[in-house]
Amino acid sequence: MINILEHVVLYCLSKLGKERSSSSVFHLLNGKKSSQTIQDSHLFQLDSFFHTAHHLTREQYESIISKLIKHEFIYISGDQQVGISESGQLLIHELYSMYPFLKNLQGGRYHNCLQFWERLSLLIQVCSNQINNQTSYIPVQKNKDTQNWIKHLFATSEGNSKNFPHELLRELQALLESSELKIDPSVLVARLSGFESIGLTEMQTIEMLGIEENNYRFQFQALLHFLMSSIEENPSAYPLLARMAVTDEFQQLTASAKKTFELIKKGKGIVEIGRIRKLKESTIQDHIVEIALFVNGFNIDRFVEVPLQERIKEAIQKASSKQLRKIREIIDVDYFQIRLVIAKFGDLL
After folding, report:
1. Residues 122, 240: one domain?
2. Number of domains the chain is built from
3. Can you give the residue ranges of the Helicase Helix-turn-helix domain (predicted)?
């Protein structure tokens, strides 16, 4: 039988249909920060799995594909497209019933969850040592940015930091004891460090819980995504945790796309932005597609006139495909304009 990662790969391949190559799934699970991968993750409703298998190597991925073929869950057609067999389809329908915690995954929105984990685990260690009056210990997180963030948190709390241990415990208990959480809290708690106590490593936790490695990694991320989502939905209920789990639409943009967005807001055009940033016009176009995906209310009219937007929408529906080449066979416009309309209205097409 196949493990959870192989099952997820099979599911993602089925969602892509024959619109993309199998490599697209590898890039999606790896969290490749390319315009194509980011757009595909939304276009095919796979953004929940974005960056959730970032340790996966190309060799490991190809091995998974070979296994799925060997067990006749998928097949490769003459034109190298991936097809799903009847037995494969049956497995796909069982994914969420077999692994219900996958419903908590929001990789596209919370792909920076490891930053949240570093801050959380270090704050817990600091608070635990604080209430035991211990000031000398080795930080569980070595990342200097994380350490500096914690120092800044305490420095800007105007004396309220004495309440951190109590507040942190209250907020975490409320979240981890939630009836909506379908994951054993030990997945996360076992790895926490405190006063004279060092948390387990990932592999030690896997061994303690007796679960398969990939299963654990998906559960760990799903739990972090659940915490971040709950905090974002009701920040007033978790004020301390909300300070370390700030998420907004701009955070989802790549650093380079943010710089392009700032210039767009100043009224700069594509050619001018490319000249200012010393980047290719196609790269700036990639940024604009990314912005259209993540920034609510971003107006694309200056890049694609409204009447042309409507004609492109009609062409997409007529093509019954998300392949740019097939859409362009129907309407003679730039690929950039098609991509931008798909990014803006993808869920409605």
Report:
1. yes
2. 3
3. 256-342
**174, 271: one domain:** no
> In 3-state terms, what secondary structure has residue 302?
coil
Q: Cα–Cα distance between 319 and 327 in angstroms, integer?
A: 6
- The token pair that represents 69 in the structure block: 């073929």
Query: Which tens digit of pLDDT belongs to each residue from 176-217?
Result: 999 888 899 999 999 999 999 999 999 999 999 999 999 999
Last residue in a domain, options 98, 127, 151: 98
- CA 327/CA 315 separation, integer angstroms: 6
Residue 107 lies in a domain: no
216, 101 in Cβ contact below 8 A?
A: no
Predicted model pTM: 0.84
Q: Are 340 and 292 in a shared domain?
A: yes
- Which residue range(s) make up the domain with 334? 255-348
Tokens in use for 162?
């004495």
Radius of gyration in angstroms for the set of CA atoms belonging to the chain, rounded to a whole number: 23
* CA atoms within 13 Å, Cβ hemisphere of 53: 23
The candidate with the shortest Cα–Cα distance to 169, out of 131, 116, 213, is 131
What tokens were used for 44? 């095919």
Same domain, 91 and 141: no
Could you say which of 187, 215, 244 is where a domain stops? 244
Among the ranges given (9-18, 130-139, 237-246), the one the predictor scored with the smallest mean pLDDT = 237-246
pLDDT for 249 beyond 70: no
CA distances from 338 to 6, 18, 234, 281 (A): 33, 19, 37, 16
For 175-209, letters b (16+ CB in 10 Å) and e give: bbeeeebbbeeebbebbbbbeeeebbeeeebbeeb
How far from chain centre, in Å, is Cα 151? 27
CA gap 29, 49 in Å, rounded = 6
Q: Which residues pair with 194 in a beta bridge?
A: 197
79 compared with 254, residue with greater pLDDT: 254
